[in-house]
Design goal:
86 residues; mainly alpha; 4 helices; 0% strand; globular
Length: 86
């Protein structure tokens, strides 16, 4: 069998999958996540926000963002956007 050489990033993803850090999602949930990320990226970011947050809350947000495969600041901005639009 021929082995494929993975990049460092690809190897990190493969290792994370092996450790169970990712969970499978259904097509609808995947589509919803992809659309939310695309919509967020399409928006112009024209304001800066500096806040203080509990370090445990920040760590939890970072872990959730990592599981979704997005940067934690993008994840937090999307949460704030959803609340602002509600």
């Amino acid at each position: 069998m021929r082995r494929i050489k993975l990049t460092k990033f690809e190897q990190e993803i493969e290792n994370a999958v092996g450790r169970g850090e990712y969970k499978p999602v259904g097509r609808n949930e995947f589509k919803e996540i992809a659309e939310a990320i695309a919509a967020y990226k399409a928006k112009k970011k024209d304001a800066v926000l500096n806040i203080r947050i509990n370090s445990q809350d920040l760590q939890s947000l970072k872990q959730k963002a990592h599981k979704l495969g997005v940067k934690y600041q993008t994840f937090i901005a999307e949460i704030l956007h959803k609340i602002a639009q509600a």
